[in-house]
Write a structure and sequence with these properties.
single chain, alpha/beta, Rossmann fold, binds adenosine-5'-triphosphate, binds magnesium ion, ATP binding, CobQ/CobB/MinD/ParA_Nub-bd_dom, ATP-binding, P-loop_NTPase
């Protein structure tokens, strides 16, 4: 299951992503956690020391490797150089699993032990001032998009992405890549303004969107959120002393998280799990092709000097494959 956390800066995306990831780990679910936020804080929120977080490998720096691996033996993709963030998989492409060893995880993921289990942590890499709004920013998040478009995930395994609700996710189609999007909103006008923008983009693409109210202090806060977002309000989270202790560098055991917040996480889990029933791999594939054609026409063809619409394999539908039928990374054909 692919789960995104989005919201206004400072709303609590990273905090709630990290709590949700801990919740998943505690229930024994395999998790790949991805920090794709402009402010790279997920590692720290999951307990890494500053030096450890700073030493995380950056997906943005591994784009050539990621492209070369995913391209596999797909004859429609002439070279990794012609692969853009929206290039869809086709016959011959390599697909990713959550539970798998592959060169992308080897290069970009770091195992991280949490109470209850070990997860994989990946990060796009820090964004600098000059990245924002230009190609580097796109390529950093593009590494995540490529991986999501090549991922076949089952119901009991999770990719959780902490990301910004930026305009790039709308242009590229990134916002349509998730089974569930949790929009974190504080009970303020600014807090819900991102919701409105997201909702508008999401409507046409059947994106499952739930609002998680954060830093909610009382009934008036709950009433405000309910009034602003209606039934999209899934659950609210109050101030957490557990989170505060963690921020002081004294992380308590996860089972000591306040019971109301544990319940909120369980509600979020149930909502994410229920979204499995709405999965539609054909629609998922169609949408990635739609955004690829759009990106190809608007900048990709010009950038690469090729007609990138030719990369679309009209007969290919991404879908789950039974574990027994999987080709392991080592026995898959090597790229030329
Ligand atoms: N429920 C909570 N209880 C206590 N502190 C919280 C809670 N939610 C968020 N915080 C604190 O608020 C601050 C901002 O939260 P966080 O970093 O998760 O937001 P963000 O949306 O990821 O921000 P950014 O846009 O900067 O990435 C952090 O110091 C965090 O610890
Ligand atoms: Mg953050």
């Amino acid at each position: 299951m692919k789960i995104a956390f989005v919201g206004k800066g400072g709303s609590g995306k990273t905090t709630l992503s990290s709590l949700f990831i801990r919740h998943l780990a505690a229930t024994g679910s395999p998790v790949v956690a991805v920090d794709a936020d402009i402010n790279q804080h997920l590692g720290a929120a999951l307990g890494l020391a500053d030096e450890e977080a700073a030493a995380l490998p950056a997906m943005g720096a591994q784009l050539p490797l990621i492209k070369e691996y995913l391209r596999g033996a797909n004859p429609r993709i002439a070279s990794a150089d012609t692969m853009i963030k929206t290039t869809p998989p086709g016959s011959g492409s390599r697909l990713l699993r959550v539970r798998q060893d592959n060169p992308i995880y080897d290069a970009c993921a770091r195992p991280l032990e949490l109470d209850g289990g070990t997860i994989r942590l990946m990060a796009t890499g820090p964004f600098t001032e000059s990245d924002l709004g230009v190609a580097c920013y796109h390529s950093k998040v593009g590494a995540v998009e490529l991986c999501l478009n090549h991922l076949v995930d089952g119901r009991d395994e999770f990719v959780v992405v902490d990301m910004t609700a930026g305009s790039d996710s709308f242009a590229s189609g990134m916002f349509t890549r998730f089974d569930m999007t949790f929009l974190v909103a504080e009970p303020t006008r600014k807090g819900v303004s991102v919701y409105r923008q997201y909702k508008e983009y999401a409507r046409d693409f059947g994106v499952a969107l739930c609002v998680v109210g954060n830093k909610v202090q009382g009934q008036d806060d709950v009433d405000f959120l309910r009034q602003e977002v209606g039934d999209d309000l899934l659950v609210t989270v109050g101030h957490s002393d557990w989170v505060r202790a963690m921020e002081k560098g004294r992380p308590p055991r996860f089972e000591l998280l306040e019971s109301a917040n544990r319940e909120a996480l369980a509600t979020m889990f149930a909502a994410a799990d229920a979204s499995y029933e709405l999965r539609d791999w054909e629609r998922y594939t169609r949408q990635m092709v739609h955004f690829h054609r759009k990106n190809a026409a608007s900048w990709g063809n010009e950038r690469t000097g090729a007609d990138l619409a030719d990369q679309v394999d009209p007969d290919f539908v991404l879908r789950e494959i039974p574990e027994s039928a999987q080709v392991s990374a080592s026995s898959a054909p090597q790229p030329a």
